Amino acid sequence: MTRALYATVPLVLAVMLAGCGGEETSPPESTETAADRTTAAEVSSASESRETASTEEAPEVPPFDEPVMFELSSRLGSDRRLTVEGETNLPQATRLQVIVERELSGVRWRERVSVAEGGFVAGPFGPGSGLPDGGYRVTVDVQEGSVQPRSVRERLGEENEHLSGPLVQQSRHGLGQVARYSQRFLVGSETRRTHDQVEVIRVE
């Protein structure tokens, strides 16, 4: 009887140990596979390649380094209204404002234009009845950097800081630099005597 009892004890212990071993849990294995790691590495590498290519493809735009220049010509049509044509060395798409003012009354006409192929055309200016004889002034303003298109700001600077020359001045609104060119002329059917260097414009 004793021998049978001693033989039964190891069997019971073995069963108990086997039961306890079945309850032991191991930490979950990572679901990331080698293929996943390879794909993530390829995506990261492709992203870096695109960033590098983008940086290399964007050429550096040189700043505008010439003094601002304008040349104007004005002509009266048969309706006695004025058309202003100009040439400039400013970058393509630079935004300008052209103003025609009658000296006697201070009446103004204005138009916003953009530089195209080194020039611009504005007008016709004046009332429907045409410009009366007298003195006038044409003014061309380079508008502030805040209203210029991005392609122009890349050349002139965010506040037109790359503008230079005798036509350049500080903006009245404290928003950087602007440039202004002004030319005086006389409208009349006959040449008038004047001591000023002024253009006399006759009706075409």
Please tell me about this protein's structure.
By secondary structure, the protein is of the alpha+beta class. It contains 3 helices and 9 strands, in the order ααββββββαβββ. The chain has helices at 2-23, 34-57, 150-156; strands at 70-76, 82-88, 95-102, 108-114, 119-125, 134-142, 168-170, 177-187, 199-201. Strands 3, 4, 6, 7, 8 and 9 form a 6-stranded mixed beta sheet that branches. A 3-stranded antiparallel beta sheet has the order 1-2-5, with no helix packed on it. The chain is elongated and about 65 Å long.
Features:
three-stranded antiparallel beta sheet; 204 residues; alpha+beta; six-stranded mixed beta sheet; 3 helices
Please give the structural blueprint.
Layout: H1 2-23, H2 34-57, E1 70-76, E2 82-88, E3 95-102, E4 108-114, E5 119-125, E6 134-142, H3 150-156, E7 168-170, E8 177-187, E9 199-201
Parallel strand pairs: 8-9
Antiparallel strand pairs: 1-2, 2-5, 3-4, 3-6, 6-8, 7-8
CA-based gyration radius: 41 Å
**CA-based shape:** elongated
Biggest β-sheet description: 6 strands, mixed
Helical content (DSSP H or I, runs of 4+): 25-40%
The stretches of 5 or more residues where confidence is low (pLDDT under 50) are 9-15, 20-25
Q: In sequence order, what are the helices and strands, one letter per element?
A: HHEEEEEEHEEE
Given helix and strand content, the structural type is alpha+beta
Share in β-strands: 25-35%
Question: End-to-end span in angstroms?
Answer: 142 Å
Q: On the 0-100 scale, what is the average pLDDT?
A: 79
User: Helix count?
Assistant: 3
Q: How many β-strand runs?
A: 9
